[in-house]
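I hope you will forgive my troubling you with a question about protein structure. The record follows directly beneath this note:
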Amino acid sequence: MNYGALPMLLATDENVDFSIHYLYAYQINGHTLYITTSHVCILLICATIMIFSLVARRKFMHAEEIPTGFQNVVELIVETLQGFVDSSMGKHGKKYVNYIGTLFLFIMFSNISGLFGLRPPTADYGTTLSLALITFCLIQYNNFKYNKIGAITGLFQPLWFLFPINFIGEIATPVSMSLRLFGNVMAGTALYYGLLPIFVKIGIPAALHAYLDLFSGVIQTYVFCMLTMVFISQKMEE
């Protein structure tokens, strides 16, 4: 057990570190696997979303005709996410509202987890790259589903010798999406606070948290989900 890495679970000014730290290491078939702070934070966020979902399900099993309190909040979240997806994907939105909704909630909770003293999982490139790769698989799935052989021949359009550029453009999608999310979250939760001079930190960090963790976190969630829907919809339209 790496007790020296335990403080890295928390996003504090004194522990500004850009590397990945592990809390526990174990051996499987001669390979060393690590449980990092990112894994723990992801587990906490997933548990929070699952508990929220179970409570919401139980509440709606005994729903009131006129919603109040918690039921009203859940209905507002669901309707907002449905409207967000439908306005971007049109008739195809119904099939992807669950995925986009889950993606939105997970990234948003991850981005704003710094407000609760955690080190945001999205400040770990392994997390953002994994999310981007899932989106990339969905993009290419729809590409082959709707365009058939055109998914391949389209790489040679409008001229055959442009294939390398078109291919790189496809591969660059998950890289650009993951780097954009990772860079903004890392800059907001670690770099910016760590680089502030001591006289600036007095009385200001609360305002910085409100912007960098909350406002900027929600904006980056919106951007990632919007790009996901745009890229998927483009393959359907082609």
User: Anything to note?
Assistant: Helices lie at 37-61, 69-89, 93-112, 125-147, 150-153, 163-195, 198-201, 205-237. Residues 163-195 form the longest helix (33 residues). The beta strands are 22-28, 31-36. DSSP finds eight helices and two strands in the chain.
